[in-house]
Amino acid sequence: MTDRAFLIGAVALTLAAGLVGIYTVGGPSWSRREILDQRRFEDIIELANALRCWNVKVTPVLPAELTVESLRSYCDGRNVSRATLTDNETGEAYRYTRVSDTEFSICAKFNDAARAERLWYYGTGEGWAFNASTGCVTGKVR
Amino acid sequence: MTPGEIDGALASFSESDFNPPVPRPRLRLTARDAFVYLSLFTALALSAGYLITLIFAILDFHLPDPAEGAGEARYALDQIRWAIATLLVSVPAFVWMTHYTDRKIAQEAGHQRSLVRKWLTYLALFVSALVFFGDAIYVIYCFLKGEMTLRFILKAMTIAFIAMTIFIFYLRGLEDFRDDR
Known about the structure:
- The complex is a heterodimer.
- Chain A is an alpha+beta fold.
- Chain A has five helices and four strands.
- In chain A, strand 3 (128-131) and strand 4 form a beta hairpin.
- Chain A starts with a helix and ends with a strand.
- Chain B is mostly helical.
- Chain B is 73% helix and 0% strand.
- Chain B has helices at residues 3-11, 31-62, 70-107, 115-145, 150-172.
- The longest helix of chain B has 38 residues, at 70-107.
- Chain B starts with a helix and ends in a 9-residue tail after the last helix.
- At the A-B interface, helix 1 and helix 5 of A face helix 2, helix 3 and helix 5 of B.
């Protein structure tokens, strides 16, 4: 094996692996969208956890809409920031649906919800679950 | 002087009929050589190591373990990015330094008798052989444990291929040290 053949082979193999790697991670712009999806995912999980209310005697009724003020007077008082209630990229509020007095769903518009689920979802939380096909977390108060 | 010392002193001259006796070429040790070859072998180690890391991470992401948690996919993506970044620097450095040293040796044969180059060549051979043997041992161990998945087989083949390629390439380079003392 000559030096040249070795070097050409090494560069070719590295280039091939690098291209597959870039295809896998999606390049800088896609990585940026991934970070935004991560934020969306973490926000709706935080909101789902805020709506969980297991530590008061009387089962609370879910608020009609999701705002800082409505959450402050919900359960034993929940604190979430305004930033958590809205999509970081678009500024739109996450879609909150009060399915019943005790059931809710919170939805976000993901760039790739299935990928977000694979990267950030550690499994069904207590009383809520994430559905990649809808981009929503659904759950119960308790 | 002892007979061994006499033999040693005489062996430092080439066997030829020319008078006066011609000393055998000696290995040279210069700071410049140390810098060049240490840089070259460091680039080699980084390139080989991160190429393996890149291929492993690609396999981890595209052939996920059913028991994998969310953290593993995320970790694989981070490893891919880090490996690509390192390879973009280390591979060109390695290629350029190899080409540079080859050119120097072609211009003046004395450059191939570098003590640093000799030691680092043997070190590269040692490490690549060690990696290859360790890989073979681990493959047999996992086979006996029943853990031979496609992902594992591809990873083992990657290590074996890269280690053996480096070993064969630098084994060929030992010819340059044939006549050295």
